Amino acid sequence: MDDLTTTLQSLGVSDVPKAPNTYPELNPFDLYRSHLATLLAPLSGQDASVIYPALQYTNTLDKGDLVLPVPALRIKGKKPDQLAKELGEKFPEDDKLVEAPTVSGTYLQFFFRPEPLKRVVLPAILKRGSGYGFNPAFGLRDPRDPSKGKKKAIVEFSSPNIAKPFHAGHLRSTIIGGFLAKLYERAGWEVVKMNYLGDWGKQYGVLAVGFERFGQEDELVRNPVGHLYDVYVQISRLQKEEDERSKQLAVEIKGLEGEEKAKKQEELDRIVSEGVDEQARKYFKRMVDGDEEALGVWRRFRDLSIEKMMKTYARLNIEYDDYSGESQVKDESMEKAAKIMEEKGVSENSDGAIIVDLTKYSKKLGKAIVKKKDGTSLYLTRDIGAIMERYDNYHFDKMIYVVASQQDLHLAQLFKITEAMGMKDIAEKCQHINFGMVMGMSTRRGTAKFLDDILRDVGDKMHEVMRTNQAKYEQVEDPDKTADTLGISAVMVQDMSGKRINNYDFDINRMTSFEGDTGPYLQYAHARLCSITRRAEIPAADLLDADWSLLKEKHAIDLVRSLAQWPDVFINTLKTLEPVTVLTYLFKMTHALSSSYDHLQVVGSEYEIKRARLALYEAARTVLGNGMRLLGLSPVERM
Ligand code: ARG
């Protein structure tokens, strides 16, 4: 017999109700919804399967634990408020799990009875620990038959461009994508984390030419991302100068004669035939033609950059499964795509270029070029090839592109072309998760260019904030490390505090504050719970059979009610795919927590009370930690 059945029997509830595809052992709300649906079915004459999904969790605890909007029962012939009243009156006064509902207009508000709730929820949290709230069965191909395996999701995120700044768009993609990957993992999916680097195109010829001139081997090894960027800036400047000079020369030549003209012509010819632009073109051509020497140099830049990036991503708890990139898309795939597009009449020739006229599907989609006149591929062409390759390699059930909303059109075109090519089933598995812009992401060092700079800057600021409380600061073991972790939390929480699509201001003072709904605030809440546990000195194993009836105070009960919601918040997050769904809950829960400290002291209380309260705080710490880790944060134990 499982734990839940035993608990329920001890409460006098003999049969454990279980609606299909629900998990009462994992989610207390599934238990209560099943129980209520079963109970309300005969009272309302409606089927339990209709009642079940209509029961929703509430955003404020004074509205109950579950509410039922009576119109959602779709019962004809009676006014919903009248029906609500009748149902309220018919509801048994003596139900073991739920109090008789409060009728509010057309709503029924259900409050769970505190005693059974505590006994169902708290031991479950303590036992499930880091797994509480998550449900690995969601990702099964067939929930009744785990041997059929897991569903597979590709999450493509971050995707910066080598030798170019890592801008705010990449930062948001990294944070949101890292979160989505964790979300699907915790829902039991097999997740492939993919970074699709911008690592191909003529600019890599420019970079190689630049390295010959300005590159320094030791710098490249020491700081590849920064050094390649510097080289790129220098060579681009030269390229621009040459470009301007040749324009100027072309004008001057017109008005000249004889020797002077010849001299200027010679200079111009030299720029055209030997200048950076031409050298870069030739270099990139060699890369395209598979020249091993040229590719070797480029590959080295790429490998060193990736090696460096991996370390930076690790600071954000992100590890990729696949460093792909534009360079990795095979010519064959793009040729195959071109052939399908031609055969299906998707593409057409327009002045020597190949285009796809998408206006026939929607005006907004416009016309897209898929092959330039000179036969070269484009960003879009490579994405079309990549989608086909990824499907062949992974047979994904879902693929998420985490890319800024500036690229809405690009991705809409990509998906539409995929569909038009006869791969509707694949297109339907793809989803663009977009997001708004970060305004003013500049730091004291100037405009932030690389992820490392951003993180270091915020870490420094956090260190400064920590120093303002000297007494506490002295107790922190490794202040640098803690400041770094807090700084990262600050950046991430600020990023995830609104709906994804909203723009926000990069405000280093606000995000590093301990006041308000910030990363440092969450970290503080977590560290405080850890400190309570340390000081109480009761072994974790002794908490499971604490006397829950000693948790009488409203603060304690409300906290339990809040903790009970977490598995449902997780389910809801799988629907919204918004990190703010998690954050809103965590802030609400931590506010309830901080207002309870004065009422529910641990140290100094009589042993049994101390044990019960500590168990409650341990449960809160578990939920907070689980939520933070889901967001990609590393909860600290001391700060
Ligand atoms: N490297 C691109 C950029 O920085 C983002 C790539 C997005 N992903 C894709 N499959 N197109 O703008």
UniProtKB/TrEMBL annotation:
<protein>
    <recommendedName>
        <fullName>arginine--tRNA ligase</fullName>
        <ecNumber>6.1.1.19</ecNumber>
    </recommendedName>
</protein>
<dbReference type="GO" id="GO:0004814">
    <property type="term" value="F:arginine-tRNA ligase activity"/>
</dbReference>
<dbReference type="InterPro" id="IPR005148">
    <property type="entry name" value="Arg-tRNA-synth_N"/>
</dbReference>
<dbReference type="Pfam" id="PF00750">
    <property type="entry name" value="tRNA-synt_1d"/>
</dbReference>
<dbReference type="InterPro" id="IPR001412">
    <property type="entry name" value="aa-tRNA-synth_I_CS"/>
</dbReference>
<keyword id="KW-0067">ATP-binding</keyword>
<keyword id="KW-0436">Ligase</keyword>
<dbReference type="InterPro" id="IPR009080">
    <property type="entry name" value="tRNAsynth_Ia_anticodon-bd"/>
</dbReference>
<dbReference type="GO" id="GO:0005524">
    <property type="term" value="F:ATP binding"/>
</dbReference>
<keyword id="KW-0547">Nucleotide-binding</keyword>
<keyword id="KW-0030">Aminoacyl-tRNA synthetase</keyword>
<dbReference type="InterPro" id="IPR001278">
    <property type="entry name" value="Arg-tRNA-ligase"/>
</dbReference>
<dbReference type="Pfam" id="PF05746">
    <property type="entry name" value="DALR_1"/>
</dbReference>
<keyword id="KW-0648">Protein biosynthesis</keyword>
<dbReference type="InterPro" id="IPR035684">
    <property type="entry name" value="ArgRS_core"/>
</dbReference>
<dbReference type="InterPro" id="IPR008909">
    <property type="entry name" value="DALR_anticod-bd"/>
</dbReference>
<dbReference type="InterPro" id="IPR036695">
    <property type="entry name" value="Arg-tRNA-synth_N_sf"/>
</dbReference>
<feature type="domain" description="DALR anticodon binding">
    <location>
        <begin position="522"/>
        <end position="639"/>
    </location>
</feature>
<dbReference type="Pfam" id="PF03485">
    <property type="entry name" value="Arg_tRNA_synt_N"/>
</dbReference>
<comment type="similarity">
    <text>Belongs to the class-I aminoacyl-tRNA synthetase family.</text>
</comment>
<dbReference type="GO" id="GO:0005739">
    <property type="term" value="C:mitochondrion"/>
</dbReference>
<feature type="domain" description="Arginyl tRNA synthetase N-terminal">
    <location>
        <begin position="30"/>
        <end position="112"/>
    </location>
</feature>
<dbReference type="InterPro" id="IPR014729">
    <property type="entry name" value="Rossmann-like_a/b/a_fold"/>
</dbReference>
<dbReference type="GO" id="GO:0032543">
    <property type="term" value="P:mitochondrial translation"/>
</dbReference>
<dbReference type="GO" id="GO:0006420">
    <property type="term" value="P:arginyl-tRNA aminoacylation"/>
</dbReference>
